[in-house]
Write a structure and sequence with these properties.
Helix content is 42%, strand content 18%. It has 419 residues and is an alpha/beta fold.
C-alpha cells in the first residue's frame, strides 16, 4: 500500500532537535552495554570508546552510519509478484509474532502448538490485509526450542508465499532463515544479499543493553544484506523514564546504536528505525498499549525516522485479555498512530492479544477488518477530470436518489464481501 495522505507532527522542529541532542549525549557520555566481543571490536575499530562492556560512540559514528543506510529497500519472497517495498510512503502489515499462548472460542486459552502455527500461516496467506509473516507467529511449544525455528520456516515456505521474519537469537537461527528462503527462490546467498528476502526484529534489552545473541543475530543479517529492524522496548515507567520526551530520547539512542552496528558490519545494509515506546499502568505496573502516549510515541518516532532518512517500523497492539471493546479501541488507536506516523512496516498488525502474550484467532479476524478499512481509507479519492462530478450528478434526478446502476458498488454489497 501507499499512504497518500501525509503524516502528523506532534514534535516541532525544536522538540525534534532536543530529542536528537539528548540521545547523542546518552551515546557519548553514558554509552550502551554491549555483551558481544565481536561487536565491540567493530565499534573500537570505528573509534568508539570501550570501557569493559560499555561502548560510547560519538556523533561522527552515528552520522557515518546514517550516510550509508538506505532510505528504502525491497523484499522479495519466493513469489516475485509479491515484492514489498519498505520505505517512502509505502505501508505493509505483518502478522502477530512471538506469543507462547493461543486462544479460540472452542478450546479457550492454551499453550500454542505447531498446528496453530500452521493455521495462522494459512490465514495470513488468505487475507489481502496481511503482507508479511512475523517471527514465529506463535511458538510451537511442543517442539524442541533449539530446532523449532526450522519447522516454523518450513511452514512459512510451504503454506504461504509471503516474505517472513527470521528468528535472530544468535547466528544459527538467522542464517537458517536466510538459507531456507534462498533455497525456495533457487538463489545463492550472494543473490539474497543483492535482493533481500527476509527480515528480522532486534529487540534492545532496554535500558541501554545489547545482549550477545541479539548482537550476533543482527550482525548475521547485516552481513548477508538482509534488513534489520532495531527496536528498543521502552515502556515509560518501567524500562524507560516516565515522561514521553525522555523515553523517546532513550529509544532514539538505543536505535541509533543498533543502526550504526549494521553499517559497521556492511555499509549499505538495509535497516529500519524501530519503535515500541508505550507506558505501564502506574498503579499495577502492567504494560499498557493503545494509549494516547503510545499513539504520540508512534507519531513522534516516525518524525525521527524521517529525520534520519530511514524506513520506519511500528506496532499495532492492545493490552486487552479478551476480544472485547477494549481490544478494538486500543488496537484502532495503535493503528492510527502507525498511519499518522508514516510507518512503513506495521508489526503485530493482526492477532495480537493480552499485551503480546497471546495470539487469538478471533482477534485476527477483527484486526483484518480494521486493516481492510484502513487500506480503503488509504485509497486515493479518484478525481481524474473536471467533468467527474458533473457526470455523476447528471445521472441523478433532481430531488431523487442514485439508481441501482449508479450506486457505489461497495455500499450495496453484503458485509462479508465488502473488502
Amino acid at each position: 500500500m501507499e499512504n497518500p495522505h501525509g503524516t502528523l507532527e506532534v514534535l516541532d522542529a525544536e522538540g525534534l532537535s532536543a530529542i536528537h541532542t539528548a540521545s547523542t549525549r546518552v551515546l557519548e557520555e553514558l554509552g550502551i552495554e554491549l555483551w558481544s566481543p565481536e561487536a565491540r571490536r567493530l565499534f573500537a575499530d570505528a573509534g568508539a570508546k570501550i570501557d569493559g562492556e560499555v561502548v560510547r560512540i560519538g556523533a561522527d559514528i552515528v552520522e557515518a552510519a546514517l550516510a550509508t543506510a538506505p532510505s528504502s529497500f525491497t523484499l522479495t519472497s519466493r513469489n516475485p509478484s509479491k515484492q514489498l517495498r519498505i520505505g517512502g510512503r509505502s505501508m505493509a502489515f505483518g502478522l502477530v509474532a512471538g506469543p507462547a499462548a493461543v486462544h479460540d472460542e472452542i478450546e479457550g486459552r492454551r499453550a500454542s502448538n505447531m498446528a496453530d502455527y500452521e493455521n495462522f500461516i494459512r490465514l495470513a496467506h488468505y487475507f489481502n490485509a496481511i503482507h508479511i509473516i512475523g517471527n514465529q507467529v506463535v511458538a510451537p511449544m511442543e517442539l524442541p526450542a533449539n530446532t523449532r525455528h526450522l519447522d516454523a520456516y518450513r511452514a512459512n515456505l510451504m503454506l504461504s508465499d509471503l516474505s517472513y521474519h527470521c528468528t535472530s537469537i544468535g547466528r544459527g537461527r538467522a542464517l537458517d532463515g536466510i538459507q531456507m528462503m534462498a533455497i525456495s527462490r533457487g538463489d545463492s546467498l550472494d543473490d539474497m544479499a543483492a535482493a533481500p528476502g527476509v527480515t528480522t526484529i532486534i529487540s534492545v534489552n532496554s535500558p541501554r543493553r545489547f545482549d550477545a545473541e541479539m548482537a550476533s543475530g543482527l550482525m548475521t543479517m547485516a552481513e548477508h544484506g538482509q534488513p534489520v529492524s532495531v527496536t528498543p522496548f521502552t515502556l515509560m515507567g518501567a524500562m524507560a523514564p516516565v515522561t514521553l520526551a525522555a523515553a523517546l530520547a532513550q529509544q532514539n539512542a538505543e536505535a541509533l546504536f543498533g543502526i550504526a552496528l549494521t553499517q559497521l558490519v556492511r555499509p549499505g545494509a538495509p535497516v529500519l528505525y524501530g519503535a515500541f515506546t508505550s507506558n505501564v499502568d502506574m498503579r499495577s505496573g502492567a504494560p499498557a498499549f493503545g494509549t494516547p502516549e503510545q499513539v504520540k510515541a508512534n507519531v513522534a518516532s516516525g518524525q525521527l525516522a524521517r529525520r534520519y532518512g530511514l524506513p520506519y517500523r511500528a506496532s499495532n497492539s492492545s493490552a486487552s485479555n479478551v476480544v472485547d471493546a477494549q481490544a478494538a479501541y486500543e488496537t484502532q488507536m495503535s493503528l492510527w498512530g502507525c498511519v499518522l506516523g508514516g510507518a512503513n512496516l506495521v508489526y503485530h498488525a493482526a492477532g495480537w492479544m493480552e499485551g503480546g502474550l497471546q495470539a487469538s484467532y478471533e482477534k485476527l479476524i477483527l484486526d483484518v477488518e480494521m486493516l481492510q478499512q484502513t487500506m480503503e481509507f488509504l485509497t486515493p479519492v479518484p478525481c481524474s477530470g473536471p467533468d467527474l462530478a458533473f457526470d455523476a450528478m447528471e445521472r441523478v434526478p433532481t430531488g431523487g436518489h442514485f439508481s441501482a446502476t449508479s450506486t457505489p458498488s461497495n455500499a450495496m454489497r453484503p458485509p462479508s464481501t465488502r473488502h
